[in-house]
């Protein structure tokens, strides 16, 4: 998913993620900048040139502005450009043709790769085999393979997407939106989008953007105010007017080897130190202000691969045409569920799971390797038909008893049993066999009335029995004196033993 680029700055080639070059410093100025190996392309400045109504070209000049040569001709409106020095290719956007094209570094072998709407800036991830570009009118950030296949939309809604640069070590792309006057960043797959500066920051038409990962800085052109600004990569530490008073600046990128930044204005290409001092014009007479600049710095000479070891576990080091190249290794595990970066301290690639937690205890959050984060409702059924199961987003599943409908009888209890509501009489038994237990139909209160026995009788265990002297007449022994006892008595009169 996300990959890392070597951010170590030394006299060897510094491979900026914007152009993905392997053999020279990448400077993606107006719409992108790259650096080339001296045996492939001479050191100097490359730019896209639009001359109405004649057409466009990609010229090159030495850094002292001599030796201007057209590398690619017969173009119409080339804008964004980047170099792949390992593959020996240059890439550009031609808006008039509506295409992304590429050619060999000497300008031969032009190929049409894919159709585009209104592309502005380009960035290459050569190690990952990807190219990124901003679609100005389509208001989108797009990505495709270097051969033009597999195009996808990563982001929309920036408000005429303009600038783009890649921090492959941090797995981020940095972006500008011209209409909404925003500076933003996102993960390389388009997720995790965050606005660092918006219109409230008083920007006017931010354009090309470039990052210095090692220093933790980003630089961008503000076309409307004619200036270059700088800030930390997290959006803090804003420095306005690092360079000001520029005539419609259109390009920007950084030479981290020499500590310079380059940009284009109407009719010229300029540079300054990274702190904005020492502004100078290096190429004048540029025909169109919609230029993109590529500045080439030579890398360290070598005779074999071991001469190019940069002690960085996250780069592949090689000696190509007697110059060192140090290119970031690819860490993509082909899963959108991981953040893939290379950590030199950890000894190589790391693939950390992305956080799909939606902060809702009532959902089950997961990640699909193809589509990304997924969310499904949490099932809170406890299998009891006499409970109401719910979910609290803060705490999770909840359970409460079913409330059965009142049957209108105050002398019954209404409750749920075996998944259904039922009613049963209130239990008014007071445990005394000598009371009559019942329920008052008006109040619903239990009534416990004593059993009323006859004269000389007492209730014992629910039965009225004779009490005291009267018990001598209980001739049948049933506990009370009655008719049977009288019959026995009458029947015994007149009988003698």
Quickly describe the structure.
With 497 residues, the protein is mainly beta.
Write up what this structure looks like.
The N and C termini lie far apart (122 Å). The N terminus is likely disordered. The relative contact order is 0.12. This protein is mostly beta strands. The protein contains 1 helix and 39 strands. The strands form 13 sheets. Strands 1, 2, 3, 4 and 25 form a 5-stranded antiparallel beta sheet that branches. A 4-stranded antiparallel beta sheet has the order 5-6-7-8, with no helix packed on it. The chain folds into 4 domains: 251 residues, TolB, C-terminal domain (Neuraminidase, 6 Propeller), CATH 2.120.10.30; 39 residues, no CATH class; 39 residues, no CATH class; 36 residues, no CATH class. The longest helix has 10 residues.
Sheet with the most strands, sense and barrel status: 5 strands, antiparallel
Name the CATH class of the largest domain: Mainly Beta
Which percent bin holds the helix content?
under 10%
pLDDT averaged over residues: 80
Structural class: mainly beta
Give the CA-CA distance, first to last residue: 122 Å
Gyration radius, rounded: 44 Å
Percent range for β-strand residues: 35-45%
CATH H-tier superfamily of the largest domain: TolB, C-terminal domain
> Shape from CA axes?
rod-shaped
CATH T-level fold name of the largest domain: Neuraminidase
Helix segment count? 1
Q: Quick one: how many beta strands? A: 39
Assembly of the depicted chains:
single chain
Low-confidence stretches: 1-42
CATH architecture assignment name of the largest domain = 6 Propeller
How many separate domains? 4
């Amino acid at each position: 998913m996300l990959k890392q680029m070597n951010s170590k700055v030394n006299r060897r080639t510094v491979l900026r993620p914007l152009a993905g070059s392997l053999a020279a410093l990448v400077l993606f100025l107006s719409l992108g900048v790259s650096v080339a190996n001296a045996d492939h392309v001479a050191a100097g400045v490359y730019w896209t040139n639009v001359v109405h109504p004649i057409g466009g070209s990609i010229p090159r000049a030495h850094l002292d502005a001599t030796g201007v040569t057209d590398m690619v001709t017969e173009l119409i409106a080339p804008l964004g450009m980047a170099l792949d020095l390992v593959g020996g290719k240059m890439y550009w956007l031609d808006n008039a043709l509506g295409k992304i094209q590429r050619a060999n570094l000497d300008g031969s072998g032009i190929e049409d790769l894919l159709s585009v709407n209104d592309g502005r800036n380009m960035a290459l991830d050569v190690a990952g085999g990807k190219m990124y570009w901003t679609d100005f009118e389509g208001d989108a950030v797009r990505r495709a393979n270097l051969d033009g296949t597999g195009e996808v939309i990563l982001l929309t809604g920036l408000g005429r997407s303009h600038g783009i640069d890649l921090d492959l070590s941090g797995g981020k792309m940095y972006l500008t939106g011209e209409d909404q006057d925003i500076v933003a960043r996102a993960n390389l797959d388009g997720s995790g989008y965050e606005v660092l500066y918006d219109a409230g920051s008083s920007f006017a038409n931010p354009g090309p953007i470039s990052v210095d990962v090692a220093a933790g800085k980003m630089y961008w052109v503000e076309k409307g105010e004619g200036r270059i600004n700088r800030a930390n990569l997290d959006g803090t530490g804003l420095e306005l007017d690092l360079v000001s008073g520029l005539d419609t600046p259109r390009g920007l990128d950084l030479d981290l080897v020499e500590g310079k930044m380059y940009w284009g204005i109407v009719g010229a290409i300029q540079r300054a130190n990274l702190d904005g001092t020492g502004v100078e014009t290096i190429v004048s007479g540029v025909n169109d202000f919609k230029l993109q600049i590529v500045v080439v710095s030579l890398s360290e000479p070598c005779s074999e691969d071991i001469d190019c070891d940069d002690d960085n576990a996250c780069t592949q080091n090689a000696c190509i045409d007697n110059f060192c190249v140090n290119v970031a290794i690819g860490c993509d595990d082909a899963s959108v569920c991981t953040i893939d970066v290379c950590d030199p301290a950890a000894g190589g690639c790391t693939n950390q799971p992305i956080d799909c937690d939606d902060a809702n205890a009532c959902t089950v959050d997961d990640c699909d390797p193809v589509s990304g984060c997924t969310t499904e409702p949490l099932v809170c059924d406890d299998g009891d038909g006499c409970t109401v199961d719910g979910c609290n987003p803060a705490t999770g599943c909840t359970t409460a008893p079913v409330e059965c409908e009142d049957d209108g009888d105050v002398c019954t209890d209404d409750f749920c049993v075996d998944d259904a509501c039922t009613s049963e009489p209130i239990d008014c038994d007071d445990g005394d066999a000598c009371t009559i237990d019942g329920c008052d139909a008006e109040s619903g209160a239990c009534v416990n009335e004593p059993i009323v026995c006859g004269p000389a009788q007492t209730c014992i265990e629910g039965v009225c029995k004779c009490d005291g002297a009267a018990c001598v007449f209980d001739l049948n022994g049933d506990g009370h004196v009655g008719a049977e006892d009288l019959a026995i008595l009458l029947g015994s009169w007149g009988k003698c033993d």
